[in-house]
Design a protein that fits this description.
- The protein has 312 residues and is mainly alpha-helical.
- Helix content is 69%, strand content 1%.
- The chain contains 13 helices and two strands, in the order ααββααααααααααα.
- A two-stranded antiparallel ribbon has the order 1-2.
């Protein structure tokens, strides 16, 4: 006798409805909410002034609230490129970049390599002494250097036995500004180089020493190539910020003189805006400077990817 057994009932799980778009957005929002304050400050303090600067470069305005800004189209840019002072300031900016390269690349590498031979507490003291000039306020150091470089009784002329007017002579003013700026920056550059050297794995040099390589060969073929990302960073900073680094000294000591001998592009756009009260011309110079240095920075970054050696 057969008993009929009913077939098992297949229970199909209820299909979970997909969350609504708003719910999915809320679930993915927390990481971006952490970034929101930084993004808001970036927009308020960087991109908003940049847009306002670009807008103002198409107007003529003397910075007086009672005087309305007058639209001039591309007139400020046309007038800017017709001024001979712009080309002269660009050449002086190149001089500043070339003059600061030894202080931000060559000397820091040498000092960093020598600093590796200093051991114990003496190394911390050594690094502190090198870094100390960066802690001095630019205005305060400008006053001290102005006294040291004084033509009649300054310490520099006494030591060298000369009577050179370092800061008010068209021949020596630019080198003096470069020298003082380099004195300020060398500590920062040495610190960056020392950090780059500490990140290089010592296994490479130890293996090379076992193979009979000399200290000079290790430095030439191992240390410097692996230090290339750090050197590229310092080179990029020097090219982009040299004119800005010299600004406090120029504004405090020479005001762009004598006869414009220390006027670079950064000081020139400030001079147009706040000495001549030509806001339109000053902002036009600022926008040109922004675009030119942006292109240079992009080119240097692309070049660094090909030249840098990374420890993978």
């Amino acid at each position: 006798m057969f008993v009929e057994i009913p077939a098992p009932v297949v229970v199909v799980p209820a299909r979970v409805a997909r969350p609504a778009l708003v719910r999915r957005l809320l679930r993915g929002a927390p990481p971006y909410l952490y970034l929101l304050p930084a993004l808001a400050l970036l927009v308020i303090w960087t991109y908003r002034p940049l847009v306002q600067t670009a807008q103002l470069s198409f107007f003529s305005w003397n910075l007086l609230p009672t005087q309305p800004a007058t639209p001039v189209g591309l007139g400020n840019y046309v007038r800017l490129f017709q001024l001979p002072a712009v080309g002269q300031a660009a050449l002086r900016t190149l001089e500043v970049i070339g003059g600061l390269i030894p202080f931000t690349l060559l000397v820091p590498v040498l000092v960093g390599l020598l600093g590796q031979r200093v051991r114990g507490r003496a190394r911390a003291v050594y690094q502190a002494l090198v870094f100390a000039p960066l802690l001095v306020a630019p205005v305060a150091s400008a006053t001290v250097w102005e006294w040291l470089l004084e033509p009649s009784g300054g310490a520099v002329n006494r030591v060298l036995g000369t009577h050179v007017n370092w800061l008010h002579d068209t021949t020596w003013a630019q080198p003096a500004i470069i020298l003082v700026t380099g004195w300020h920056l060398i500590g920062f550059a040495v610190l960056v180089v020392s950090a780059g050297l500490s990140n290089i794995n010592s296994d490479y040099s130890e293996a090379a020493m076992i193979d009979g390589a000399s200290r000079g060969q290790i430095t030439r073929w191992i240390t410097l190539p692996l230090l290339s990302p750090t050197l590229v960073f310092l080179a990029l900073m020097t090219v982009l910020l040299s004119a800005q680094w010299t600004f406090p000294l120029i504004d405090t000591i020479t005001q762009g003189g004598p006869s414009g001998a220390t006027t670079n592009v950064y000081y020139l756009l400030w001079d147009y805006s706040f000495h001549s009260f030509d806001a339109g011309l000053g902002t036009a110079a600022g926008m040109v400077l922004f675009v030119v240095f942006g292109i240079i920075a992009a080119g240097l970054v692309l070049l660094s990817e090909k030249l840098s050696v990374h420890d993978d």
